[in-house]
Each structure stands twice: as structure tokens, then as C-alpha cells.
Amino acid sequence: MKNEEEIEKLENKEKEYNEASFKDLLKEKNITEDGVFEKDIFKIKFDQRYELIPSLLEKEKLYNEYISELKKNSKEKKEEMKILRKNINKYKLFLKEKIEKNDFDLEMNFVDFNDKYYNIDAVKNVPEQQRELIFNETKMKLNEIFENNKQETKERYLAFIEKEFPPEKVRLLTTIDHIKNVLKLKKEYLSISSKTERNEIIKEYLEKVKNFIKNRNDHIETKKKEEEEKRKLEEQNKDLKVKNKFKNIKDLLKSDNNETMPTNIPRNYTTMKDLEYNNHILIFKKFLKDKIKKRIPYEEAIQLFIKEYGKESLNNLEEEMLQKIYKIYIGNLVMKQKDEFNQLLNEYIQYNVDIPWGEAQRMMQYDTRYQNIMPAEREGMYRDYRDNIYNRVLSQFETLVNEKEGVITKDTPLEGYEYNKLLMSLRDDPRAQRIERYPDKRDKIIRAKVKELKHKFWEEEKKKKNQLLNRKTEREKNSKLYQKWQKGNIIQ
């Protein structure tokens, strides 16, 4: 009898252990409360713990029990969350009332607040961690409002001082008492109750105006000097412009033989007309390089050139030649600006391709490299950059996976705890961190690598098997030949 009871106890213990293991399996495979046994069976049937329950009906019964437990727990959690939300709202209302009654001290820390109001239901019904978080958030918002109000009050008071005692009345010998005597006659003087704050604001205003007065004369004199120097330079440039324009031509004409002619001028350029034509071409190219920094119509560029060098500079120059030079220059300029824009994107965006175009615009709008690109082309270039980065991220992760052949094997699990452990081991590498934005692509690349390793393994196994078969057939063939040879010797 005792043996039978002990056996029964052991069987019950084994049954309980098997049922607990089966439920652990369901938990590991993330079976949800809306799951169906017929569908979820494919997730669990390949695990050893699935075989611990012999009967399919028992498996289904345990599955249904697990689902009902999940539903019950979920319902309880929802109820708890509902009560917690109500308590949090009451706590927030309590804080709001304290603020409205001016009973909320900004100097008070959470420990003092908790000691003071802990016995009130609205406070003690909220968990301490969340209570502290809400208290600190409220305090931070109030501090921000207080600082903003303080700054606005200061700005209004400065405007009031400037209105009643404008900078024109201030002299280097003016004191704070002079200004206070004027302001005391007005109601706004006491809009800031603190005497020290009033004095600090008046002092700040006075110092600002006095510094301006000290520097004003120097500023005016330096500005006048700069304008005078600028005017003189412009006059000199106007006088020397025509002389310098054909300086190269005159030097060439003075030379008697071809040996002294510059190498950049062909030897058959011996007439004044040829030299002038070549010089005008060089001037036009130099003008494009110095003045044209963005794409504009050809006609507009020609008008600017005429304005800069005069209409006579276009004499003897073919329209077709000018258009060709301009087209080549603009093509090179556009390529350079696009390279600079891509460099700008690399500085601001880098691998953060989730940034929307509107936000990227706000980040780059004041940079000249952004402004040089035509508005219609900016968004398209940004999309191309994002596509290139996306492809680069995938390519880099594939390289990383190929490097980790010792870590990723044919037996690597593709879900569950072991798979998450593998991902954690890869996270130290920046290439793995970048692809975390695309978990589906990451999993696809790892699955493809595991599949490739499995295929490679089975190919090698097949090759080994064929080699063994070949050796076996060769041994059999050799043994037959040996037997024939023995028979031949015996007969002899």
C-alpha cells in the first residue's frame, strides 16, 4: 500500500511538473489571450516540452487554461490601471488646487511635501515613484512659467523706463537717483514690488545706454572713414578699369618676336583683333568664376557682364561660343553645389534617415550649401540621400553578419531568448545599431545567412557521403580483383 501511495505521489509530481513545463513553453512562445489552439500548435510542437503531455486533449485543455489565466490577469491589470488613472487624476487636481490657492511652495522638495500631505487620500493612493514624478514635473513647469513671467515683467519695465527716460536724456553723469526721481511720479514704477529688483533693472538700463554713448562717436567716425575709403576705391577702380582690361594685349603688341609671347596665346594670334578676342574670352570666364555663384538664365548673366565690363567687351564674340562656355560653367557649378549639398546632409542627417523633410529643412535653411540648390530639387536630393543611406545600412549589416560566421551558425535560433541574446551580442557594433530601425530587414538578413550556412553544411555532408560511397565501391572492386587473382594462383 505504501509503495502504491508513493508511486501515485511521484506520478502526480511528474504530472504537475509536465503541466508547468508545458505552460512555460506557451509563455516563451508568446501565446496571447486571443490565441487559437489549432493555429498556435505549430509554434510549440517542435519543442521537447510539447511531448511531455501525451494526449492531444490534455494539451488543448492546458492551453485553454493558460488562455483563461491570461484573460483573467489582463482584466485585473486593466482594472488596476483604471483605478490608478483615477487616483493620478485626483492627485493632479489636488496639486492644481494648491497652485490656484498659492499654497504650492516652489522651494519645497518632494520629501517635505510627502511628509506634509501623506495622510490625504488624493496623495497616498498614488504609488510613491509616480507621485514624485508628477510632483517634479509640476514644479518644473511652474518654475518655467515663473521665469518667463519674470522675464516678461523685466522687459515691460525696461520699456517703461525707456519711454519715461529715453536714451537721448541720458548723459555720462546721469545716476540711478536721477532716473528714479522721474519714474516715481508714474503708477508703473511700483509694478515691481521688490526695491532691489527695480534698482537692478534701472542700473542695467543706465549702463547699457552709457556704453552706447561712449562707443557712439567712435562708431560714427569709423563708419565715415570706411565709407570714404570705399568711395575712393570705387573711383580708382573706375579710372583703372579700361586701362587694366587690355593690359595683356598691349604687352603682347610691344613684343617684336614670337619667342616673347605668352605660352597661353597661340602663335598665329598676331593681329590686334585676334588678341582682343582671346582676351575677351578670358575676361568672360573670369567674370563667371567671380560673380556667378548660382544658376541664372544666360540672358541675365550677359546683362550682368555688360554692366560690369561694358558693351564693347562683347565685340567680335560669337553668341554660340558664349552660350557654350556658360553651359559648361553652369554644369560644373551645379555638380559642385550638389556635392556640397550631399556633404551638408552628411553633416546634419548622417544615418538619421527617419527625420522628415520639413524638419531637415529647418535644420539646414541658413546654410549657403542648402540655399545654392534649386528649391524644386532639394527634396528629391534628400530622398536620394536617404535611399543611399538605407542601402548602405543594409550592406554594412550584411558584411557584419558575414564576419560573424562563428557566432551565427546553421543552428542559430531565429526567435525566442537565444535569438535576442544573439542580437544583444551584435549591438556593440555600430552597423548593428544602425539597422535597429529596420527589424524586419535585420531578421531577413540573419535568416538568409542561417539558410545559406545550412545549405553549405548539407552540401558538404553530401560531398562527404559521396566520397565515402566512392571509397566503398573502390574497396569492393579491389577485393573482387584480389579474389580473382587468388583463384588464378590456386589453379596454377
Shape: flat
Per DSSP E runs of 2 or more residues, the count of β-strands stands at 0
Overall mean confidence score, pLDDT = 76
In angstroms, what is the radius of gyration?
44 Å
Biggest sheet character: none
Helix share, percent: over 70%
Q: Total helix count?
A: 18
Q: Give the distance, in angstroms, between the N- and C-terminal Cα atoms.
A: 81 Å
> Beta fraction of the residues?
under 5%
Q: Which structural class matches the secondary elements?
A: mainly alpha
**What count of structural domains?**
4
Contiguous low-pLDDT stretches (5 residues minimum) are 252-270
**SSE order, as H and E?**
HHHHHHHHHHHHHHHHHH
Short description:
By secondary structure, this protein is mostly helical. 75% of the residues lie in helices and 0% in strands. It folds into four domains: 2-91, FF domain (Arc Repressor Mutant, subunit A), CATH 1.10.10.440; 165-238, no CATH class; 247-317, no CATH class; 342-468, no CATH class.
